[in-house]
Amino acid sequence: MPRVKIIGAGSIGNHLAHASRSLGWEVTVCDVDKAALSRMKNDIYPQRYGAWDDTIALYHSDDAPIGNFDFIFIGTPPDSHLPLAMEALREKPNAILIEKPICPPSLDLTNDFFQQLTKSTTKVFVGYDHVVGRAAAKVEEILKTGVVGDIQTIDVEFREHWGGIFKAHPWLSGPADSYLGFWERGGGASGEHSHAANLWQHFARIANAGRVTEVDAMLNYVSNGESLYDNICSLHLRTENGLMGRVIQDVVTVPHQKRVRIQASLASIEWIINYDQTGDGVLLFRPGKKEERFPIPKTRSDDFIEELKHIDGCLKEKSRAGNSGISIERGLDTMIVVAAAHLSEKTKSRVIIDYGSGYIMQALKAI
């Protein structure tokens, strides 16, 4: 039975604990805050899943066991991700999963972490779970048939008021009470809804369009004296091979709208997240033919269960790990785009990402 250590007893920690137990894995959760451990046991977990699972071991971080874990999952604020991941590497687990985004837009410690990773056999993943779910697989399946032709442009929207986040975190009174209210810590629309940028990049890779090399962005910052975050993040992107498209992320839209639209030469595909009460929907539009709908029934818990199945599968088939949609490299690619977005807004200009010279990492030190 795989042994899992989860760092962080907040909302993500609960999701990952439940997903791990659904797969029959042994779970240990630790947190620096004893109140968070109490909330997990007495409130969050039983309210979401019906009852507390007594097999889950809870520890204050000072007393948490070290070593002999197959997986370590990090579900803490983004500015703590890489320091904790560097500590986790020393425990030599088979895999580490870092919740998205991998780090703040400053990209601090990314070089140090990757240097440490080159000396390790541990596989590291970032929690962009949408790209490894059943709906993404269905979109890829349709694309591979060739029925849509060549991909011409991609649009992705994650528009959702973050009231739902605070409902899931009732101990927070608003953005200023956590990293969510600070874009420099990885919060705001650009960080919290970076699933959208990640999905855009994922399907660009499917189209063999390469990585994003140009970012032209507009962000709207909100400051109330206690917090500073972007509530709207609008991106225009171009890849190495010339594919262009758009990404919109916000924390103001009610009701939510989360979708991927792929326009190709012969047809278009839409993936609508939370299409109806049963789950997602993938729609295929071909001229002169009736719209085809492919329902993808799922629950929120399924997102995390599929993610953990994917990681387990990558370890069992090592060839899959390097090409995983949630690999550490792809998680960093997304954060580079987010970082470039903030730089674009600051300079009121398009940002060119030169991966070879590391330009973006140096340029962002000025933010």
Question: Care to describe what's here?
Answer:
- This protein has 367 residues and is of the alpha/beta class.
- The protein folds into 2 domains: 3-99, NAD(P)-binding Rossmann-like Domain (Rossmann fold, 3-Layer(aba) Sandwich), CATH 3.40.50; 130-297 and 328-366, Dihydrodipicolinate Reductase, domain 2, CATH 3.30.360.10.
- It has helices at 11-22, 34-49, 81-89, 110-117, 134-145, 163-168, 188-192, 195-206, 300-316, 328-347, 359-363, and strands at residues 3-7, 26-31, 57-60, 71-74, 95-98, 123-126, 151-159, 212-223, 228-239, 244-250, 257-264, 268-276, 279-285, 292-297, 351-352.
- Strand 11 and strand 12 form a beta hairpin.
- Helix 1 packs across helix 2 (34-49) and helix 3 (81-89) packs parallel to helix 4.
- The radius of gyration is 20 Å and the shape is globular.
